[in-house]
Amino acid sequence: MTLPTLFISHGAPTFALEPGIIGPRLTALGRQLPKPRAVVVVSPHWITAGLEVATSARPETIHDFGGFPEALYQLRYPAAGAPEVAAEVLEALARAGFPGRSNPHRGLDHGAWVPLMHLYPQADVPVVQLSLPMTGSPQVLLALGRALAPLRQQGVLLLASGSITHNLMDFRLGGGEAAYAREFMEWVADTIAAGDLDALLDLRRRAPHAVRAHPTDEHLQPLLVAIGAAGEDWAAARRLEGGLVYGVIGMDSYAFGVTAGGANQIDHSASTPVSAAVAAH
C-alpha cells in the first residue's frame, strides 16, 4: 500500500466549526483512503531551527490562537500519538541528512488538529507532528519531503497543512472577495496541472500576486513538502476545491501521487483531476 500525500489548507481556526465546502470533501477523502498506520503532520505553526518530531503517546490539543469564539477553546482532538512511527520519521530524516530530535512534550497545534477534525473526525488514526524547518529555501523543503517519501509505502500518510492564500491583513480588513486571491489559486492549479516544478519552486517571483497572497511564505512552504514526499508521482494530483472564505482565504487542497487505480485512488466525488479542474475555469 502506497499512500498519496496531502496539502490541506487549514484556513482560520474557525474552520473547525465552519466546514464550508472543503470540510465534507476532506471527510469523504478520509473514508476513501486506506486507513493509515499514522498521519505525520507538518504545520506552519511549529517552526524550529532544527527539525523536531513529537513523540508523545498522547499529544494534547494546543489552542494557539486568540480572540475567537469560546466554543473553539473547548474543542479537543483526542487522537493517540505514535512513538514508534515518530522513531521511523527520525530514522528517515537522518538517512537523508536531516538530523532531528525527539520532542516528547509537543502537542498538536491548530494547523494539525483543525484539518484532522474533518479528515478523520473520529480521531481514530494516530498522529505524529513534525516541525517545519526554519528555512527560506524551496529546495530544502522539497528535499525534506523526499526524505519522508519512503514512509508512504509503510502505511504512513503525510499531511502538509498550510494555506493556499494567507494575507491576514486583508482578512482583518474584510471587504468581500478579492480577485487577486482567486487568480493566485488558479495559477497554482494551472502550474500543478502542467507539472511545472521549476515554476512552483520559483513561485514567489513567477506567480501573480504571490507576495500579496503570501506576505510571508510559511503557510505555503508545506506544499513543497507534500510534493517532495510524493516523489516522481507528484504530478498525479487531484485538486479538492475549497473556494474562498472571508473573501481572501483560499481553501483549495491537493492530493499528490494519486494513480489511476489501486490503493491510492481517490473518487471523483471528493476531488477533481487538476487538469480537469483547470479546464473548467
Automatic annotation (TrEMBL):
Keyword Ribonucleoprotein applies: no
Molecular function terms from GO: dioxygenase activity
Pfam families: LigB
Cofactor requirement: Zn(2+)
Keywords: Dioxygenase, Metal-binding, Oxidoreductase, Zinc
Domain Extradiol ring-cleavage dioxygenase class III enzyme subunit B: 33-251
InterPro entries (UniProt xref): Extradiol_dOase_DODA (IPR014436), Xdiol_dOase_suB (IPR004183)
Zinc in keyword set: yes
Family of this protein: Belongs to the DODA-type extradiol aromatic ring-opening dioxygenase family.
Name listed for the protein in its UniProt record: 4,5-DOPA dioxygenase extradiol
Organism: Azospira oryzae
Lineage of the species this protein comes from: Bacteria, Pseudomonadati, Pseudomonadota, Betaproteobacteria, Rhodocyclales
